[in-house]
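Please describe our next protein:
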Amino acid sequence: MKKEEQFQQTLLRKTVVITGSSSGVGRAAAEAFALEGCNIVIVARGQKGIDEVVELCKGLGVEVLGISADTSVAADIERVAEETLSRFGRIDIWVNNAGVMASGKFEEIPMEIHEQVIKTNLFGYMHGAYNAIKIFKKQNEGILINNVSIGGYMPAPYSSVYSATKYGIKGMMDGLQGEISNYQNIHICNLYPQLQKSTGNLHSAKYSGFKMGIPPIASDPRDTAAKMVELAREPRKDLFPDFRSYAITSIYRLFPKLIINTASAGVRLMMKIKNGPEVAGNILEPSQDPLKIYGTPPLNTSKNIKVAIVIGILAGFALIGLKKGLVNKSN
């Protein structure tokens, strides 16, 4: 049996580092890999969330190490790698997951916030990859999983700097694919989920009146975490975790101007109607409560239905635009 096939056969006692694992998809990933019998390394800024997930993993009967670290700081992530090797002797899987988001009018979001979004998202994934790949080359095997999001393929309306980081992550990882192409048992896997029913939206920074609950079309973070486990078992370069993620990006690639303009118009209307307060979220400090997998949308059921109707109407207009575009292209 080839070494790669042996690696994929079981994840039992494989050592997995997961950044941003105190809440949301990262917390779900810690749970999912723990259920596979992996050694888990929890990486986050806030000690409270780390302690909770450490206890969760211990309750599932696995070895676990919690490390307080900021992915935007190179020395912190180097320390994560060193402490993990000291405890477990190797790193089999590294999951780049920690990320932050700031939404609002570009010029109304403080520059300090913009800069930290870049540091956490782009630099954070760079720091993770930098340490993981060095270790993987010494081991001659390992898997780097990047939770990129569909933002790697399309911009998020009124979240321009966030979008820049996601495009940057995809470009960096595409380049690194070539650099590790002569290592048969080292893999870089990119995951492109859409919006999640996680705490991510609750923790994000919001300006210019931006205020949004979790939309009805959002995906289950446990399903996304399951896809991370799938990539650990069967590595592949790119994976859309569900049909919605693939469909959204496919439509955008066909009609980018129509989609971003329609989505931006919807966000402008929402900001004007809701006029939410300015919130710095978890950009400059660790995420606060709720520290859990699922977020609670600040919308009741009837409002969710109304939101779904609005989304349906916007989608209808988009489809009309698609149809017209196809007709024009055929003429």
In short: The chain is about 55% helix and 10% strand. The first helix runs from residue 3 to 9. The chain has a mean pLDDT of 88.
